[in-house]
Amino acid sequence: MSIDLILSERFGFRSFRQGQREIIEDVLDGNDVFAMLPTGSGKSICYQLPAYLLEGIVVVVSPLISLMEDQVEQLRRQGEKRVCTFHSGMPYHVRMKILRDLTRYKILYVSPETLQTDTLSGTLSRMKVALFVVDEAHCISQWGHEFRTDYLKLGEVCNRIGRPPILALTATATVNVRNDIIKLLNLDRPEMHIYSVDRPNIAFQSEIAETTNEKMDILIRYVQTLKGPGIIYTSSRMVTETITEALKRNGVEKTAYYHGGMENDDRLLTQKQFIYDELDVICCTNAFGMGINKPDIRFIIHYHFPSNIESYLQEIGRAGRDGEESLALMLYHEDDDFIPERLITAELPTKKDINHFSVMVDVDKPDRTLFEQSITSLNLSETAERFMHFHVEKFFREEERDFQTWKNQLVEFIEKRIKEKRERIRYMKKWILSEECKRESILGAFSEKLVTRPLNCCHVCGLSLEPYKSSKEKSPRPVIKSWEEELAIIFHQVNVDV
Prior knowledge:
- The chain is of the alpha/beta class.
- Helices cover 44% and strands 12% of the residues.
- Helix 5 (92-100) links the parallel strand 3 (83-86) and strand 4.
């Protein structure tokens, strides 16, 4: 069966989008492939379609359980039953049944952490794995070094299960990040498919506020007037809740917050309400958005700026996937500068932490149990603690162990990572404050040049906000002075302008 016929019969499309055919053909030829396609361009079809033609199972490494479950749900709605996900949140008996029946499936979605388990990797090693896919592959470089170190082990896991061809997929990777991915996955002379990160239908607008109060006022004014639905990104869980309440007080009723501190069921409910148009606005941390399959998001507002340009591009890329005009708005106040700096210092142990650790352990007779217990005693953040466990594990895998060399290399690595992160923060801030074309500056970070300037480019090039405004402006809630007035309104005994 030809790939065009499968595209039509299985996926309901008449033709391939840019890059899809070339990537699929290289996958079917058994090559390692690195592919960078802009958000919303249909990356998943690059491995879902080959699954119908390849002998064996396609293993897809994905960063989020919600993302995996969404992909499985979509495929099942299309009539494909031979697809499943495998993660720690599933009941034990369900996981065991999947393992027993794994040969019946064509696509398996799994997190990098779950893939490390001997139970799953052992089962896969006894099967025919046709393709190993790393979705959102930029996470290897951006998260792997400290946030989720299991990403760094994916190359080893791939070897354990028979070293099938690898497909690395991402929407945003600078040249340095691409090289990082290729090195860490041990890609063998991969076929490179690099397409522009530019999304011409997304316009860029930035506003600098003199005070934090003014910044909130600007935000409310925009949300009241812009077409929805939309997403507001902040760097603080508390601020997501504060903004949500402020918007509701000012007439934007169908608003909710979303952050990692919520119960999983509450997060899932909020996500579903947004997808099915029961909410107009989500105010969230970066815990929300990856894999959200909602094509009609009309605006993305950043109340705080992300720590690097790749994350920014990922987040604004959730707008306008239907091809319609959408707006990316950046709000900035000088007090925002300390937020990303605070985050990067919390993500990694300090030199003082490493020195304290070296005092607690016996460096002449290294004992792994004592090393692991000593990490807990440091009172590190969850991310920094995970980072230390990874490097301790690496130390004990060395045949010849030299603690002082290991310690010096670790301190050097931490200092290098912090320096890199600070440089990316500086680039992001420079982009915000620059009076150069916003689109050209973003493309420059990915070693691209602007070929065609869209009519609605950015505020520097001249941007009318009229196409992005709603015909209905939201009004603030009426001010209620007492419970008696509240009851009177409920029972329609007073007139209140709304």
